[in-house]
TrEMBL record:
Keyword Membrane: yes
Protein name per the record: Protein TRIGALACTOSYLDIACYLGLYCEROL 1, chloroplastic
Principal subcellular localization: membrane
Pfam families, sorted: MlaE (PF02405)
Length: 368
């Protein structure tokens, strides 16, 4: 221990540490003149207080007042409004391109098969039960009043003018219209319509026009089939349950029906088919928001299609079977078939007579 302590307490020569030598110039303090210190202190104070020798900057010029915004720049139209406008624009494009001959035939045939043959089963089943339901109501009341021979005529008029086109269109809107909206909505969300444009195919020609043409061609045929099945099921039920002969039902229907009743049903079904196809396609191509948007567009397309069908049915029924429309229908029939007589019901509705037209185009039935 003594040796170690003696070793540490022994004086060390300065030559062992040259930096600690008094002859080293690095440890000799420099003498800074007082004038230099004052100058440095002045510069520091001027920098800390923002005092510079530069000239003051000019005041910034006032910014020009912003231009007033347009009147409707911040207004966003409601979604149903611009969707309705898009449906009208789409209908115009379809009509223009169809008249110009820009029709994709292969897609049209595929959609025609989809709307027509694949929808026959559900349409005929619905028409049969609707006809039987109305038969139950009509036969009971007419039999109680002693007018069972007029049941067939009433059923035929109801089925041809209203029930067949409306029921067929409602079933088609639920089955085909929803499929159109969902399919086109999925294509719009996944940007497949933009891919068609890149490939040089117009989406209206390739997707919309074939569907509209298919609905307009298939629905009249479906309506005629539904009318036949509905009347047949009504006659069968009246004979089996209420004892009214099938021959009486069919004879009454033959006397009550006019060619214009069938023609008006065909026209209605064509208009309804165009409404279903255009609304479903318009709602599909305006879809956004992913899978949720596709579901909302599909539901909305079916609802709006049904509302449009009922509104169009009222308008067409008023035009076809009220007031001046009867005159125009009679004049149209006489224009195509000038030598044919027009059958009109007598006021008692139990006897049908054939009369000549007066100068205004209306027939005056004889009262038996």
């Amino acid at each position: 221990m003594e040796a170690i302590s003696v070793f540490f307490l022994r004086p060390v020569p300065s030559s062992s540490f040259p930096l600690l030598s008094p002859n080293n110039p690095q440890i000799i303090p420099k003498v800074i003149p007082r004038r230099t210190l004052i100058l440095r202190r002045t510069v520091r104070l001027s920098l800390s207080h923002g005092i510079t020798n530069n000239a003051p900057e000019p005041a910034p010029e006032a910014a020009p007042a912003p231009a007033p915004a347009p009147l409707f720049s911040s207004w966003t139209p409601p979604r149903p409004l611009w969707r309705g406008l898009s449906a009208l624009i789409l209908a115009g494009q379809v009509a223009h391109r169809a008249l110009a001959g820009r029709i994709h035939r292969r897609n049209t045939l595929q959609q025609l098969e989809r709307v027509g043959p694949r929808s026959i089963g559900v349409c005929l089943l619905t028409a049969a039960f609707v006809g039987m339901a109305f038969t139950i109501q009509f036969v009971r009341e007419f039999t109680r009043l002693g007018l069972h021979r007029s049941v067939g005529g009433v059923l035929a008029l109801a089925l041809s003018r209203e029930l067949s086109p409306v029921v067929t269109s409602v079933v088609t809107a639920g089955r085909v219209g929803s499929a159109f909206a969902a399919e086109l909505g999925t294509m719009q969300v996944s940007e497949q319509t933009d891919t068609l444009r890149v490939l040089g195919a117009h989406p209206v020609d390739y997707l919309v026009t074939p569907r509209v043409i298919a609905c307009c061609l298939a629905l009249p045929v479906l309506t005629l089939l539904c009318f036949s099945v509905g009347l047949a099921s009504s006659a069968f039920l009246a004979d089996a349950v209420f004892g009214v002969s099938i021959n009486i039902i069919l004879e009454s229907a033959r006397r009550a029906l006019r060619p214009w009743d069938i023609i008006s049903a065909m026209i209605k079904s064509q208009v309804f088919g165009a409404i279903i196809a255009i609304i479903s396609c318009a709602w599909g191509v305006t879809t956004h928001g992913g899978a949720k948007g596709v579901g909302e567009s599909t539901t909305s397309a079916v609802v709006i299609s049904l509302v449009g069908i009922f509104i169009a049915d009222f308008a067409l029924s008023y035009c076809f079977f009220q007031g001046a429309a009867t005159v125009s229908a009679t004049s149209m029939w006489k224009a195509f078939f000038p030598k044919a007589d027009i059958i009109h019901p007598s006021p008692s509705f139990t006897k049908w007579v054939v009369t000549d037209d007066d100068k205004h185009g209306n027939s005056k039935p004889e009262i038996p």
